[in-house]
Amino acid sequence: MSIEFKKISGKTRLLNPFKGNTLDQIPFEIRFDPLTGATGRVFDLPFKAEKPDVADIVDRSKKIFCPFCPAALEKSTPEFPKDLVPEGRIKVGDATLIPNLAPFEKHAGVAIFSPEHFLPMEDLTPATMGDAFSACLLYLRRVAEFDPLVQFFSINWNYMPCAGSSIVHAHLQPNAGEVATNALREQIEGCRTYGRVNQRDFWQDFIQAEKQKDERYLATIGSSFWSTSFVPVSFLPDVQCVFPERLSLIEMSKDDLEYFLDGVSRTLKYFLQENIYSFNLSIFSTKEEKGHRVNARICPRLLPRPIGNSDIAYPQMLHKESFTVRPPEVVREKLLESFTS
Ligand SMILES: [Zn+2]
């Protein structure tokens, strides 16, 4: 097994005014992602998020037009061409899936969770999330049958404006296309390189290595593996999920989805305890890349200080370098409470 959790530990020297201007050393780590080699900086700072004024955000969102509320949905949102979706819009339980008017991909949908304008994070349970995710899987399967050129799939979620969502009304964004995004391409290249060098499957080795280390591992829920990420991509550590037996989103079963949503709801329960009320979620998948597996990340999003500064700044934006203010091994302890209860 050749999974490497490589990190370089360093210290920055300075005269610290909070310690009587004596010589101080601030530790930091540069970590290397075991799959892609991408680096990220990890600190251990005494950061604690403050709960945002959610009621105020929801009130402001109600003062602007919402195309996903029942009064507007039929008239103000597009329908799919009949050859792709004969019924125009896909409906599963409370969820409605429509084309994305601002498409990110050749095939881009928006799955609206329910008629409710605001779905509080406290209410995001497997039951309330299931219909929208099921609709996305149905849509991606149809796209895969309809368009043989499509090779890459994802299901994405910006929850609340702090995570980039322009509409508070909860919705997912399933995408399918012919060109992988940077993150997915780097995953695929990492899998190919690992397979070529080691003659082994990356994900099996990775899962075994994380379980053996037992520093970030959270749980195995049915067919899904859960841990914090060795190299987090967000300001606070993210949670990752892998389906080691699933090559593609289009082969995900009803049970797989239940396991996934169980893990998501446990993650969100932890986020709420930490006053985090916004997140990004992506599930990455290819159609048939042999060494790749369906995997996901759930990233906390927040405005770190009361002036409302973004948690994304020059490092992520321009250097493509993540920085994280808490080590994933430290937050794992509290996450475990949520994953084992
Ligand atoms: Zn609405």
Summarize the structure.
The protein is an alpha+beta fold and about 350 residues long. It contains 8 helices and 14 strands.
Describe the structure in your own words.
The two termini are 32 Å apart. Helix 3 packs across helix 6 (254-273). The model has no long low-confidence stretch (mean pLDDT 96). The longest helix is centred in the middle third of the chain and has 21 residues, at 126-146. The protein has helices spanning 54-62, 70-76, 126-146, 182-198, 202-213, 254-273, 314-318, 328-340; strands at 7-16, 22-32, 39-42, 90-92, 95-99, 107-112, 152-159, 171-177, 217-221, 224-228, 239-243, 279-286, 294-300, 322-324. A ten-stranded antiparallel β-sheet has the order 4-5-6-8-7-12-13-11-10-9, with helices on both faces. With 341 residues, the protein is of the alpha+beta class. A hairpin with a 7-residue loop joins strand 5 (95-99) and strand 6. The protein contains eight helices and 14 strands. The chain is globular. The structure holds zinc ion. Zinc ion binds at residues 66, 68-69, 117, 169. Zinc ion (ZN) is lined by residues 66, 68-69, 117, 169.
